[in-house]
User: Fold these one by one.
Assistant:
Number 1:
Amino acid sequence: MDLAYTEAEEEFRARLREWLAAVLPSLPAKPSPDDWPGRRAYDTAWQRMLYDAGYAGLHWPVDAGGQGATPTQHLIFLEETEKAGAPYVGANFVGLLHAGPTIAAEGTAEQRARWLPPVLRGDEIWCQGFSEPDAGSDLASLRTRAVRDGDHYVVSGQKIWTSHAEVADWCELLVRTDPTAPRHRGISWLAMRMDAPGVTVRPLRTLAGSTEFAEMFLDEVRVPVSHRIGAENDGWRVTMVTLSFERGTAFVGEVVACRRTLAALAAEAQANGGWDDPVLRRRLGRLNAEFRALWRLTQWNVSEAQSSGGVPGTGGSVFKLRYSHARQELYEAAAEVLGADAADLDREWALDRLSSLSYTIAAGTSQIQRNIVAERILGLPKGR
Ligand SMILES: Cc1cc2nc3c(=O)[nH]c(=O)nc-3n(C[C@H](O)[C@H](O)[C@H](O)COP(=O)(O)OP(=O)(O)OC[C@H]3O[C@@H](n4cnc5c(N)ncnc54)[C@H](O)[C@@H]3O)c2cc1C
């Protein structure tokens, strides 16, 4: 990938900066972290603004409703929106960053026309129903079953850790459609309405006190067969596409956010005298180098994804592994700079520090990413 920006890309950047400077001051105040209906309204309103201005689904293919922008333009978009302090995708996370791209890559023309425009407009929110009480890292052992009844599946089982379930309209749901097949072969990927009869959502409280995710109980929920993405029992392959988006590109905007946080931390250290400590300065310097390297890796991953038809490769696991640890180290350094303030739960720093702990678990734990790197990138033998 050519890392130098062309004149056209710089023009794109300038136009975007101008637009951000014009619209951001008019945004309402951010809702509190636990105000989920408020957060949904805020995040979807921002998504609608992006859509109306032609910035929604920037890098999605044009025939999936996107703008067909180059990977570099997409990265410029992420960089500039973060630098300007624009809202994050937030509640739209699953729809925009992995369910939508999966449907764009694997869905039929009708499915793409049905589900993608509302995601891009911010009209519909998605959540992810993959994990179960006994199927997290070992996802293929999932037990939620779907029994065919005419042109419907009847789905029963339990999901857990379903982020944003409380405010979602749709769920990307993994179910077992053939209990007799080898575990990886009898799975299907369904789009399920969250207001369908038989769906019960029970919020779970996180370490930071917020109700970020939920348990989901499914009792004979009827899902039309036409809501299946990919062939029946071929859901594991479709899931690998979803996970490659989740690990490969879904976190890229956050790297820029971490660089902004690091700059704020350095400023705070300079103001409170912490900067005089050479050990702390070295620590912040190393983090700066780490996030710069991660940004370069991001550019490489996005470019690779584009050249392989839009689906990211296993390089995303390297990124996910390093990024999730670097994020934790960033908030550890913050605790050192801020002292007692870092534990003050009324300050965003404290909540971000607690939530940074979850990054080495969500979207596949670090151990699992290491397995993937060892087996699929380095070609080492599989463990017993
Ligand atoms: C903030 C957050 C949001 C999440 N959101 C969602 C969501 O929206 N939807 C969803 O479906 N899920 C979600 N999850 C769930 C997440 O994907 C799982 O927690 C994750 O896959 C780990 O599974 P587990 O919790 O069952 O742990 P387990 O699989 O039980 O693992 C326990 C420990 O054993 C290790 N381990 C397990 N197997 C191996 C192995 N083969 N080799 C080496 N080590 C191993 C793991 O690395 C881990 O340290 C979320 C999780 C978090 C933290």
Note: Strands lie at 126-129, 145-149, 152-163, 170-176, 187-193, 199-204, 213-224, 228-229.
Number 2:
Amino acid sequence: MFLIVAARFLAPDVKRFTIEAPRVAKKRKAGQFVILRLHAHGERIPLTIADSDPDAGTITIIVQGVGKTTKLLNMLEAGDAVLDLVGPLGRPSEIERFGTAVVIGGGVGAAIAYPTAKALREAGNHVIAIVGARSRELVILEDEIRAISDELLITTDDGTYGTMGFVTDQLRGIIESGRRVDYVLAIGPPRMMQAVAEATRARGIRTVVSLNSLMVDGTGMCGGCRILTTGGARFACVDGPEFDAHGVDFDLLVQRNRKYARQEAESLRRFLEHPERDLGLVRESCRLEQQHPEVRCEARPS
Ligand SMILES: Cc1cc2nc3c(=O)[nH]c(=O)nc-3n(C[C@H](O)[C@H](O)[C@H](O)COP(=O)(O)OP(=O)(O)OC[C@H]3O[C@@H](n4cnc5c(N)ncnc54)[C@H](O)[C@@H]3O)c2cc1C
Ligand code: FES
């Protein structure tokens, strides 16, 4: 059981949680994620470790409520708990002194890009952050990203904040101005990451994307997160989640991510009829776990 010590909405449907997980907090590196389960019958979902405090023994996750489990998670408050949390998983981001690094976060991708942007800055890079959202109220982590970047550009699709347009418009502007760009990291919806890859391909700018493929076990055993790159088939959970953007088959990624769309929609529909029932399951599972820690069968994080 992993206690939630703080929880706050950053935008509609986007919530930041601070969770007690001392061993994960001590080991995690930028780019890694956890897989958690909310209750005894819940599904396992991957979430990036946005930050950690090894002294306090806590990690931060930022969650966008898109389906049943993320919407249920976003109903939890400080004092509630998550039943299982495994991590840190995945390969850490490659952090080097590249020179000028452009870090792009689209939507909740800003939360996933934040820890890597911070590590790139600490490694001595000149970091240009581009944060994009559909509209003003969906821009997240503006202050946090400003604090760890040298330049911050904000775009909204509808022009309600920052510059109207897409993150790729800003990226193209930087490249076409003749400024030297040594490294690009893009995290967001697959089609956004694909557009970034196309914007940098001709100039051969090293470009990395973090893939949100469907995950189940997170250990390379189930095959759920298989993606195709020019190097062949890879598993995002153990070989990634970051990959060379110019080699990724984005069409296949999109196709595989839509595979269970019908079942996901049905499960969300049923959940929304009685969300309090699932909330009760989370609280009951955690209460039982607290009363009978000896009957746990799941492994604790390493
Ligand atoms: C390495 C990694 C890190 C991630 N980090 C974050 C994060 O920091 N914050 C955040 O809000 N989201 C993150 N995600 C996405 C998050 O895991 C999904 O939104 C979540 O699993 C959706 O579950 P659901 O039951 O709420 O929705 P569902 O109804 O099950 O699905 C809604 C959509 O979410 C995606 N999805 C569903 N199940 C999974 C799964 N097991 N793994 C990956 N994607 C799935 C699918 O595209 C689906 O269409 C990350 C995904 C990966 C792979
Ligand atoms: S999540 Fe099962 S192989 Fe990656």
Note: Residues 33, 45-48, 61-64, 66-70, 108, 111-112, 212-215, 241, 257, 261, 264, 268 surround flavin-adenine dinucleotide (ligand 1) (CB under 6 Å).
